[in-house]
Amino acid sequence: MDNHLDKLTNMRQKALEGGGLDRIKKHHEKGRYTARERIEMLLDEGSFEEFDMFKTHRCTHFGMEKKEFLGDGVVTGYGTINGRLVYVFSQDFTVFGGSLSETFAEKICKVMDMAMKNGAPVIGLNDSGGARIQEGIESLSGYTDIFLRNVMASGVVPQLSGIFGPCAGGAVYSPALTDFTIMVKENSYMFLTGPKVVKTVTHEDVDVETLGGASVHTVKSGVAHLASDSEEEAIESLKRLFSYLPSNNMEPAPFEATEDPSERTEPYLDEIIPDNSNMPYEMKDVILNTVDDGKFLEIQPAYAPNIIIGFARYGGMSVGIVANQPKHLAGVLDNDSSIKGARFVRFCDAFNLPIVTLVDVPGFLPGTVQEYGGIIRNGAKMLYAYAEATVPKVTIVTRKAYGGAYCVMSSKHLRGDINYSWPTGEIAVMGASGAAEILYARDLKKAEGEDKKKVREEKEAEYNESFANPYVAAKRGYIDDVITPSNTRFRIVKALGMLQHKQDTNPRKKHGNIPL
User: Fold this and answer.
1) Do 2-243 and 267-431+468-498 agree at the fold level?
2) Residue 31 region, left (φ>0) first, then alpha (ψ -120 to 50), else beta?
3) Over the range 307-332, which residues count as b (16 or more CB within 10 Å of their CB) and which as e?
4) Per-residue pLDDT tens for 272-283?
5) Cα distance between residue 140 and residue 142, in whole Å
6) How far apart are CA 444 and CA 422, in angstroms?
7) Cα 172 to chain center, whole Å?
8) Which is nearest to 147 in space by CA: 119, 114, 112?
9) Is 503 exposed, middle or buried (0-12, 13-18, 19+ CB in 10 A)?
10) DSSP 3-state assignment of 115?
């Protein structure tokens, strides 16, 4: 018996060493953690249970039969985060550069299948150079098996991805299919084809950071959702994100008790809207002053900053927040912000997270760049997402809500449950200045000089009194109430409490055809 136990102990130790102590040392010298160290940081202490520690590849080409590592380059299993079950896989760059083999893929597929059966999230820690070339089609089929599971799990269990090193070729598509992706600045990158191939095909000289670093994907492409300064920070971001999410689509998000009074008022909000409606203000101040304990996890803060998305709590209830940002492009909706907002709304709807929408939007951004980029199609994505969503929807108009953008931003007409406006709300087809040019064109044409300025001011005031205020919409029931800004937190908490057991359905169908 002792011999058997000794063998088991030796094999476990060998598996724990991954690609070997020398490679681990080199990995550490680059300031990077190993696959197992990342899991230890992510999960509750002592909670990790590993699968397939002794699994090895089956490749016999190119002398691969002489190079075997127990575990074959990926660590898989399950554990807990703050006591909640989660399945994990962590790719090991010290083994064949983290490249994916047939058995590597089988290990990942096993934990994904278990996650689906048991209704628990999946977190993938990615550090891979792509497909293991020596295996050819077996590697490609392995990737596709994972992609299929990503798609099947979408909207069923949350899927989170951390990028801790290279993520190239087929390796990028699995993170792209997951719900949220977090990268590490200057230490991780994602691209389909590397700099050498780019040079050959397009003759561009580009380094890995410029081609696919965190600054690219969190600012320009929108592929990644958060960028961290270190691996430790990235792990903490994954854990914080996880805390807002339910384990699966059949459960509510975790409730977190707070001592922050629901009836707390914020007099500051009564003064936040400038007298000049063309002047910006910080919408994040509205968010931070109304959510529990001032805690807000913003998602994609650097990408399409004219719209804000993220998670917070009201009265202990986890919610998704969507808000126009007047400080960037006046809060206008464009191609990128429409896509960003629509995807977030659909995520919240898939996982039973109420949506709180703060509206200050002057319309859709005009111009050839936007039209050629598909603003009609992309704006329709926002429209589709809000219309499709059956979760509780609470909307606050803080200032502007013009034209089609009013319709899109969780209006009453898209099954908004509770729609409030501040007294400063301007709900109309367009702003007073533009409306005056059209509606009172003859009067303005007749007037000259100071008279023309006076006539314009009078007509704009007339338009504001007749149309661009919240009371016209309130008279028709499109606004449920005009509320005092300082009392916004209380009204949101009360509304969400009332909507806790809301039930709404969509027509029975295989799936809709969102304008992609």
Assistant:
1) yes
2) left
3) bbbbbbbbbebbbbbbbbbbebbbbb
4) 999 988 899 999
5) 5
6) 31
7) 17
8) 112
9) exposed
10) helix
Which of these, 245, 366, 377, lies nearest to 312 by C-alpha position?
245
What phi and psi, each to the nearest 5 degrees, are found at residue 354? -55, 150
- Asked if 120 and 158 touch (Cβ cutoff 8 Å), the reply is no
What one-letter code names the amino acid at 160? L
Task: Give kind and range of the element (H or E) at residue 49.
Answer: strand 49-51
At residue 57, the 3 state secondary structure works out as coil
Question: String of b and e for 425-453 (b: at least 16 CB within 10 Å)?
Answer: bbbbebbbebbbeebbeeebeebeeeeee
In the predicted model, is pLDDT for residue 436 greater than 60?
Answer: no
Is residue 435 pLDDT above 90, yes or no? no
- 226 vs 207: CA distance, rounded Å: 21
Residue 400 pairs in a beta bridge with: 426
Instruction: Name the residue among 482, 495, 427 with its Cα closest to residue 290.
Output: 495
Q: Are 220 and 336 in contact (CB under 8 A)?
A: no
Confidence category of residue 68, pLDDT binned at 50, 70, 90: confident
Give 358-395 pLDDT, tens digit per residue. Answer: 999 999 999 999 999 999 999 999 999 999 999 999 99
CB 320, CB 350: distance < 8 Å: no
Q: What is the pLDDT of residues 116-160, one digit of tens each?
A: 999 999 999 999 878 787 777 888 888 999 999 999 999 999 999
How do the domains of the chain map onto residue ranges?
2-243, 267-431+468-498
Locate all alpha helices (DSSP H) within 252-365, ordered by sequence.
Answer: 283-290, 335-350
Architecture of the domain whose range is 267-431+468-498: Alpha-Beta Complex (3.90)
Cα separation, 393 vs 416, in Å, equals: 5
Among residues 186, 157, 187, 161, which one has the least CA distance to residue 176? 161
Q: Count other C-beta atoms under 10 Å from residue 412's C-beta.
A: 18
Q: Which two tokens stand for residue 286?
A: 């509205």
When the candidates are 3.40.50.1010, 3.90.226.10, 3.40.720.10, 3.30.70.970, the CATH number that belongs to 2-243 is 3.90.226.10
Packed helices 432-439 and 449-466: angle between N→C axes, nearest 10 degrees = 110
Contacts of 216-223 with CB under 8 Å at 24 or more apart are 217/181, 217/183, 217/190, 218/183, 218/300, 218/302, 218/303, 219/302, 219/303, 220/303, 221/303, 222/300, 222/303, 222/304, 222/336, 222/339, 222/340, 223/176, 223/181, 223/190
Give the catalytic positions in this structure.
169-170, 404-405
